[in-house]
Amino acid sequence: MKGYKVTVTVLLALLALSVVACLFSLAYGAYADMKRQGRQQQSAALRLQEQELAQLAGQHAEWRKLPADLRKFRRQHIISMDEFARFRRDLNLCLDDNGLRAPNISFNFGRLRGGLQPVSLQFTLDGSYRSLKKFIYDMERKPKMHFFKKIDLNGSGDTVSGRFAMEAYLEK
Are 86 and 142 in contact (CB under 8 A)? Predict the structure, then answer.
């Protein structure tokens, strides 16, 4: 009987040892899993930071191009003081091409802001609706930056009378 007791004791000891080993294995697995999740979270955070950095780098590149783009815009669309006389000739040519006369074109030079000076033009035209419409269309197609601020048309018979307010920007 003593042999059975020793065998049972040894088996119980082995069972206890295997339970302890199993618990240790579970604890180690949980610890390893927590470390893996922590590394995954760090890796995800790092990838997010890399994406944000790439996005900021793209925006920075766009900002670095801005001065050159602004110079290009000004060269293509803003009327220089030297080109203002040509703008006035183009305006008169456009009026003549459409059979319109504007004897009193008033110019009002505004205050200089950011290297640009607004110039307001006001005049009255009388002619057919088609001529006035063509004049507006022709002026809007011109490449430099000028636009109509206000157009008031009044018709009586075949003649339409229009009061125009334009604005152009000159670069000093």
Answer: no
Q: Is the pTM of this model over 0.70?
A: no
SS3 122: strand
- Strand 106-109 relative to strand 79-80, pairing: unpaired
Q: Tell me, what DSSP letter sits at residue 113?
A: B
- Convert the pLDDT of each residue in 88-109 to its tens digit: 888 888 888 888 887 788 989 9
Q: How many whole angstroms separate alpha carbon 20 and alpha carbon 25?
A: 8
Helix (H, G, I), strand (E, B) or coil at 151: strand
How many whole angstroms separate alpha carbon 5 and alpha carbon 154?
Answer: 121
Tens of pLDDT, residue by residue over 115-164, are: 888 999 999 999 888 999 999 999 888 888 788 999 999 988 788 999 99
What is d(CA 16, CA 42) in angstroms, rounded to the nearest whole number?
A: 39
Distance between CA atoms of residues 107 and 121, nearest Å: 5
Q: With residue 139 as reference, give the H or E element that holds it.
A: helix 129-140
Residue in the block written with tokens 């507006």:
136
